[in-house]
Amino acid sequence: MKVSKNWLNEYLTLDIEPKVIAEKIARTAVEIDSVKRPSEGLKKIVVGYVDSLVPHPDSDHLSVCQVDVGEEELIQIVCGAPNIAAGQKVIVALPNSRIADNVKIKRGKMRGQASEGMICALQEIGFSESVVPKEFVEGIYVMPEDAVPGEPVFDYLGMNDDIIDIDVTPNRADMLSMRGVAHELSADYDVPATFKHPDLKETSDEKIEDYISLALPDKTLAPTYSMRVIKDLTVKASPMWLQIRLWNAGVRPINNVVDVTNYMLMDYGQPLHAFDYNKLGSKDILVRTANAGEKITTLDTEERELKDSDIVITNGDKAIAIAGTMGGESTQITNETVTVALESAVFNNSMVRKTARSQGIHSEASMRFERGINVATVQESLDAAAELIAELGDGTVVTGTASASRLEAESTFVDTTTTHLNNVMGTELSETQITKLFQQLGFTVTTRGSVLNVEVPARRWDISIEADLVEEIARIYGYDNIPSTLPTGEMTPGKYTYKQKLIRQARHILESAGLSEAISYGLTTEEKAGKFIFEEKDVYTTNLMFPMSSERTTVRMNLISGLLDDLSYNEARKSDNIAFYEQGRVFFRSEGEDRPVEIEHIAGAMTGLFKLANWQSDKQPVDFFMIKGVVEQLLTQLQLTDDVTYVASESHEDMHPGRTADVYLKDELIGFVGQVHPNAAKEFNLKETYVFELDLQKLVDAKKEERLFEPISKFPAVTRDVALMVANESANSDIETLIKNQGGKHLIDIHLFDLYQGSHIESGMKSLAYTLTYQDTAKTLVEEDVTKDFNRVIEALKETFKADIR
């Protein structure tokens, strides 16, 4: 909500710096995004009058203009705007001026013609394109007739105003209006606020019944629904004061009818909608829910298929607007409009919220209907809008208001006591002080013994219980004025749980292996949620009823999809060598269950080069053994008691069938590691990519060995090499396991240093060479001890793997 200081000054007098006001709002109500003056940083930008222009001799789109900028002589400016014309008053940046983004304008030449400055569009002096009137979006802005050449443009365009951008929270929807902000500042500074109310003059020759007949069979759809009619209008551009009010509030001016509805939206916080009466096709207006498959083309020219939960405004038959969200194109206001049907309502907020989410329309109107409307000003804002439309459009207001329903504004009464307020806040305020603070807020207080009965006006619909009153007193009194006290009681040191310690240890291990942490969305698409699942039982996706977007419809069932999105994002930005990990929860739902269970997982993804080439070594691309080594390092350092095994697997649809292994802890599947299937990688626009995902909860629950530290042996080690030829099907992990089991108590390391397959050895066979290291911590080993253990390994290899010792 962008708040204009000049606009505020119409309601209350605050001779206070805008930044101080913003600080006050931030301390007492809601956050402030920014405080700025649009003209700040700009200089030497003045009104110019285009006296004459001729086409540029060397260009088919440039014009050479002679411009009056209030000096003795005209200056020459070359301009390329398509809408430049003689007789216009325009925005001129003089030589050495500063425009938006601190750009400096200098004298120069454009294709041989001197140019003494620049004729500017609104965007070039800092206006957002979203607020520039459509007729000036593609060209320069034409100033009003009363603009005087040579004078600064800032006052003419409202750029010397101070704009406070307020970040309104859902519980303070009353501040989504200028009047609501004025009420808030009136309470903050104890300054009275004065508001103008409409003085509507109606015609006496016609009545509203001659134009409109409203029907609302289900009043829960719209507790309040009313209409007025304004006739004999001329639709044209709004006066400058209104355009300035709107663009400083972040709204694009359109015409005098639509602008008034937007003006009342910002002033009262009440959404209004104007229909071209002659396009309705009927005097019967019916408010109902949409029929299945019913369609409407909205003001953004998009055809939308409606749902039966959408509220629609109809001409008795056909939908002409989506209630509380967006109007229909068929009845929009145009320059040919002469009669307007003006709508003011309170729609069912939950249904509007559903419609806004399902249709992807998040308008200023829907935001206010979702959060709540001040029912006390629904009729007043309708009357004020009708009065102003008639005034600006030279029209007249038809007598009366058509109403299908009307919700009466009622105050809320809440009881509290001085003792309770002081006990909660830790203050010693008197009843008189508390009553005064309530009066600053515009609340009426009646005393019954020790009880304060507080009457809260309808404009503060967020207050309903005693705790709300405590908060109101605390913030107006000032949080800084509330005494600070230290907590009492026995202090206990905080500490991590066992699970938290292990999760942090797992993160540290992966980071030490060279992976960087990534954090992905917990919501994804249903397709991505169903990929890379390794659960041994059937699981089902969990979809959101009202997702924020089509990309966030389903809670995730794996971490890899999110990591692949992160890799794809980085690769698209020329970052090719990436190693990410993520630790987080996935959500599995079994058949028949309403809610999913949350399980801790940890996953990694790597692509490109793990190590770049340098003068000492070659580059090292990521491969299966690289990422398997990361997993092995993680599981080893977690000190698991049970054995970890890797079993080749072809059961993962999105993984490479020849480069994927399931990871087992004893007999329990805890995850998988391998290469993403090339087809799946292509979907994410990735090259060769390797991933792993583990059930971290199972690792937390698994038995662990206690980490014991031993001194390094001072006695020398003995090594023995063995080369053996075995069948290709024999796995290195199985061979190492056998060597470890048969190697004796002095065997401390097994190292595979050679693998050979090819010519010179029998087909279907491979040659493996190992170094076995023996050491004793208490003595020097003798030849006989090592030979005995080594020979036992040799015999076991021959027997188990039919190995040919070379």
Please explain how this structure is put together.
- The structure is a single chain.
- It contains 19 helices and 42 strands.
- With 806 residues, the chain is an alpha+beta fold.
- It has six domains: 2-37 and 162-189, Phenylalanyl-tRNA Synthetase, Chain B, domain 1; 43-136, OB fold (Dihydrolipoamide Acetyltransferase, E2P) (Beta Barrel), CATH 2.40.50; 202-405, Phenylalanyl-trna Synthetase, Chain B, domain 3 (Phenylalanyl-tRNA Synthetase, Chain B, domain 3, 3-Layer(bba) Sandwich); 412-481, Phenylalanyl-tRNA Synthetase, Chain B, domain 1 (2-Layer Sandwich), CATH 3.30.56; 498-701, Bira Bifunctional Protein, Domain 2 (BirA Bifunctional Protein, domain 2); 718-805, Ferrodoxin-fold anticodon-binding domain (Alpha-Beta Plaits), CATH 3.30.70.380.
- It has a seven-stranded mixed β-sheet with strand order 28-31-32-38-37-36-35, with helices on both faces. Strands 3, 4, 5, 6, 7 and 10 form a six-stranded antiparallel β-sheet that branches. Strands 12, 14, 15, 22, 23 and 24 form a six-stranded mixed β-sheet that branches.
- Helix 6 packs antiparallel against helix 7 and helix 18 (732-742) crosses helix 19.
- The N and C termini lie far apart (82 Å).
Main sheet properties = 7 strands, mixed
End-to-end Cα distance: 82 Å
Chain-averaged pLDDT:
93
Low-confidence stretches: none
Brief overview:
With 806 residues, the protein is α+β, with helices and mostly antiparallel strands. The chain is elongated, with a radius of gyration of 38 Å.
